[in-house]
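Bumping with the actual sequence this time:
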Amino acid sequence: MRLWTLHPRYLDSRGLVALWRETLLAQAVLGGHTRGYTHHPQLRRFLDTPSPMASIATYLHAVHAEAVARGYRFNGAKIVSDQRTVRIAASSGQLEYEWKHLFAKLRVRDPSWLGQFMTLAEPEPHPMFLLVPGPVAEWEVPHLPIHTDTA
């Protein structure tokens, strides 16, 4: 499960469909409708909010909006709340880590999609995230080396 801090616009079609499905799974987990994934690290930032269901709904609405903008027909009725205003802090280090992670995935999976972002210096976060300075999130399970300043 990967619930990207990055704006969904950067995901290729496979990535966007996977994000939709994984976020619907996260919604089911947060709603108590599954037995699996209940301790998944990606859910921590939603669980740490006053209303995890409103938070995941806010996240899903932005993913749905991106899908609609691309002409996809994701079923918005699967989002269990109309909430769209939750904001969660996300660190600049997390965003940078995910950007590198996505680049590595797209370099293999869809180089033509990646091409449009090659000169982008700083990606935007998903609309629900308020970017703050900081390192990679504690809950992240790194697939890439994480470099930290030790000076």
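The tokens above came from a reply further down the thread. The beta strands are 88-91, 129-132.
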